[in-house]
Design goal:
single chain; 577 residues; alpha+beta; Immunoglobulin-like; Glycosyltransferase; 2 domains; 6-stranded mixed β-sheet; 37% helix
C-alpha cells in the first residue's frame, strides 16, 4: 500500500502498525479516488473477526499538494480502550478492505518499544575492539594533540562518526545528538521507573545512560569545552578519525569547541541530571556534577566565541536553559536559578505575536528539523522547580501561546494525517508548510523529520499538562492528545507511504543499511522518514525513496535523535498514570 497507489480505484487504510495506548487518541486515515457515501462507516475487528467498534468516517478532505484527486477520511476510535489486537475495516461497493493489525493496551507504546530502543542504542555503541583502540588517542584537527574519546554511540546507520551536534556553521539548524540521547534516557529513568522495572528495562536504561554520560565526560577538554565531533570521514580506515568542526560537504576545521547550541548545553544538562541518579559509571556521581559546573562556567565566558557567527540565538537559549535548570535542580544554587531565569526570559522575548518563536534578533522564524519542541520541553523542565508566581506565569504564557500556534498552523489547511506543520522564511517570504525548506542555511541538508515529530509530540504532552491539564487520558485536552498521537502514528505507519519507520516493527520497513565495524540498522531504531518533494526549495510536495543513487539516506537512514525523541514521547505518555 505505497503512496504510488493513491489515486487508483482501490481504497487504502493507513494506520499506526504497532500500538495505541488505551488512554490516548487513536485514528486511522482512509483514502479513495472518488468521494464516499456521506454515511460510510468503519468498524474495528478483533482477532476473531468480531466487530468491537463502529464509527462514522469524517471527511472528505484533500491534499492536492501530495495526492491530486484523492479523497481522505478520518476514522476516530479514541473511545475504544479495550485491550486487544485489531484491524480497521471499511465496506465499499460490496467489497471489504482491511488495515494492518495493531494493538491497543495500557502504555502500549512504551511497553512495546522501550526495550528495543535500549537494545538499538546498545548496538550503536562505538565499542568494538577497533573503535575502542583508535578512540584512546584521536588527533585534534590541525594539531598533534590527542584526546581519549572512547565510547558514545555511532550517529547513524550509515555513519560511525560521533557528534555532540553538527551543522554548527549554519547557526540555526544545529541538532542535539549524543547529549540529547543521554538526557532522554535519564529522563525516562526518573519519570517512569516503575514501568521500566516492570519491563525489566530499568538497569539496562541506567547502564546505557551512564555509557552516554561517560562519553560526555571524556569529551570534556582540560580547558573546559566539549569536543564537538569525532569524524570518520566515512572512511573504513579507523585511524582516519579526527576531532573536528564541520562545515558543508564534510569540510573539516579546528572549530571543534561546543557552544551551548552545539551540544554544550545539553552535555552540561545530561551530566548534571545523571549525577542525581547517584550511580557511578566510569566516573563517580559527584564527578559528573563537578564536570557540568566546570563546563558551564567555561561557556559563560566563551560561548559567543564558539558560536560560528559570534551571536547567540534561540538554540543557545533553550540549550543553556536546560543546562542551568539541571544544575539548579542538582545544586539548589541561586546562581543557577538566576541563570535559568535569564534564559527563560530570553525565550519569552523571542515569542512572536502570532505564536511562533523568532530564532534571531530580527525576524527569522524558528523552525527545526529535529528539535522543534525542545524550547517548550526546556521551559517545562524549568517550571518543574520554578515557584515564583511571576516567572511561572510568564513561562506558562509562552508555552500556551506556542502550543496554540502549533495546533493552529497544523489545522490551517486540509491535513487528514494531522502532520505537524511549521512556519519558516524562504527568501523574504514567511511561509507555512508540512516539511522544512530544502533551501536553507546549510546549503544541502534536508531529511525526514521523525525526530521533529517526536519533539513536538513531547512538547504537546509535557507542556500541555501545564497549560491545558485534563483528568484522564494523557492529562491534556483532546486536541493536544490527538496532535501527539498523530505524530507518533505517522512514524509508525499512518503516513501516505504506509511505512513504519521503526525498524522491525509494523508491517512495512525501510531496507537494512550497513555500516563500518559491524554497525548498521538495528531493531528499535527509527529512520529519517518523509520529506518535501526533491527539487522544491520550499519543501512543498512529498517524497520518500528507498533508492536514490546513494542519496536515499535522506529517507531511510536511522539517526540517534529520532529514537531519543520517540523515547521522550512514550515516556511522557506513560508518565500520567
Amino acid at each position: 500500500m505505497l503512496f504510488a497507489l493513491i489515486g487508483k480505484a482501490a481504497p487504502a487504510i493507513y494506520v499506526n502498525q504497532v500500538a495505541f495506548d488505551s488512554r490516548g487518541a487513536k485514528m486511522a486515515v482512509v483514502s479513495n479516488s472518488v468521494k464516499l457515501n456521506p454515511n460510510t462507516t468503519f468498524t474495528l475487528l478483533n482477532t476473531l473477526n468480531k466487530v468491537v467498534f463502529k464509527g462514522m468516517l469524517k471527511g472528505p478532505s484533500q491534499i492536492n499538494e501530495w495526492a491530486q484527486g484523492s479523497f481522505f477520511y478520518q476514522a476516530d476510535f479514541s473511545s475504544l480502550v479495550q485491550t486487544g489486537k485489531y484491524r480497521v475495516s471499511i465496506h465499499i461497493n460490496g467489497k471489504r478492505y482491511f488495515s494492518d493489525e495493531f494493538e491497543i493496551s495500557e502504555n502500549a507504546l512504551a511497553v512495546n518499544t522501550i526495550p528495543s530502543i535500549i537494545s538499538y542504542y546498545n548496538k550503536q555503541r562505538a565499542n568494538t575492539p577497533t573503535e575502542l583502540e583508535v578512540d584512546k588517542a584521536v588527533i585534534l584537527y590541525g594539531s598533534t594533540k590527542m584526546a581519549d574519546v572512547r565510547g558514545g554511540w555511532c550517529d547513524a546507520s550509515g555513519d560511525v562518526s560521533k557528534y555532540f551536534s553538527h551543522l554548527a556553521y549554519a547557526n540555526y539548524m544545529s541538532p542535539q545528538q549524543i547529549p540529547l540521547v543521554t538526557w532522554s534516557m535519564i529522563n525516562a529513568v526518573q519519570t517512569i521507573p516503575g514501568l521500566l522495572k516492570k519491563l525489566g528495562a530499568y538497569d539496562n536504561m541506567v547502564n546505557e545512560a551512564l555509557w552516554g554520560g561517560d562519553y560526555i565526560m571524556r569529551s570534556l577538554s582540560k580547558e573546559g569545552y566539549f569536543y564537538m565531533t569525532v569524524f570518520s570521514y566515512f572512511s573504513k580506515d579507523p585511524k582516519a578519525r579526527r576531532i573536528v568542526g564541520l562545515r558543508a560537504n564534510s569540510v573539516t576545521t579546528d572549530e571543534y569547541q561546543c557552544a551551548f547550541r552545539e551540544g554544550g548545553g545539553m552535555g552540561i544538562a545530561a551530566l548534571a541530571r545523571i549525577s542525581q541518579l547517584k550511580k557511578d559509571g566510569d566516573y563517580k556521581s559527584a564527578e559528573y556534577l563537578d564536570a557540568a559546573k566546570r563546563a558551564y562556567a567555561h561557556l559563560l565566558i566563551n560561548n559567543i566565541k564558539y558560536d560560528d557567527d559570534g551571536k547567540e540565538n534561540i538554540i543557545d537559549d533553550y540549550c543553556a536553559l536546560m543546562a542551568a535548570t539541571e544544575l539548579w535542580i542538582a545544586t539548589d544554587s541561586s546562581f543557577y536559578h538566576e541563570e535559568a531565569r535569564k534564559r527563560a526570559e530570553n525565550l519569552e522575548k523571542r515569542m512572536s505575536p502570532v505564536g511562533y518563536f523568532i530564532a534571531d534578533d530580527a525576524n527569522r522564524p524558528f523552525w527545526h528539523a529535529s528539535d522543534a519542541g525542545l524550547p517548550l520541553v526546556a521551559l517545562s523542565r524549568y517550571l518543574s522547580k520554578e515557584n515564583n508566581a511571576t516567572d511561572r506565569t510568564a513561562a506558562l504564557t509562552v508555552i500556551k501561546k506556542a502550543l496554540d500556534y502549533n495546533l493552529s498552523v497544523t489545522a490551517g489547511v486540509s491535513n487528514p494525517f494531522g502532520y505537524a506543520r511549521q512556519t519558516f522564511r524562504i527568501g523574504n517570504q514567511i511561509k507555512d508548510g508540512f516539511f522544512i525548506p530544502h533551501e536553507n542555511e546549510t546549503g544541502w541538508w534536508w531529511q525526514g523529520e521523525n525526530a521533529r515529530l517526536g519533539s513536538l509530540a513531547t512538547a504537546a504532552l509535557v507542556g500541555g499538562r501545564l497549560v491545558y491539564p485534563q483528568k484522564g487520558g494523557w492529562g491534556v485536552k483532546k486536541e493536544l492528545a490527538q496532535y501527539a498521537s498523530d505524530q507518533i502514528s505517522w512514524i509508525l505507519g499512518c503516513n501516505p507511504y504506509a511505512m513504519c519507520f521503526m525498524y522491525q516493527f509494523g508491517k512495512n520497513n525501510v531496507p537494512y543499511m550497513s555500516s563500518s565495524f559491524g554497525h548498521g540498522s538495528g531493531k528499535g531504531g527509527i529512520s529519517n522518514g518523509i520529506t518535501g518533494k526533491e527539487g522544491n526549495p520550499d519543501g512543498s510536495g512529498i517524497d520518500f525513496k528507498t533508492k536514490d543513487e546513494d542519496n536515499e539516506w535522506r529517507w531511510t537512514e536511522q539517526w540517534l535523535p529520532h529514537a531519543a525523541w520517540f523515547l521522550q514521547t512514550v515516556t511522557a505518555m506513560a508518565a500520567n498514570e
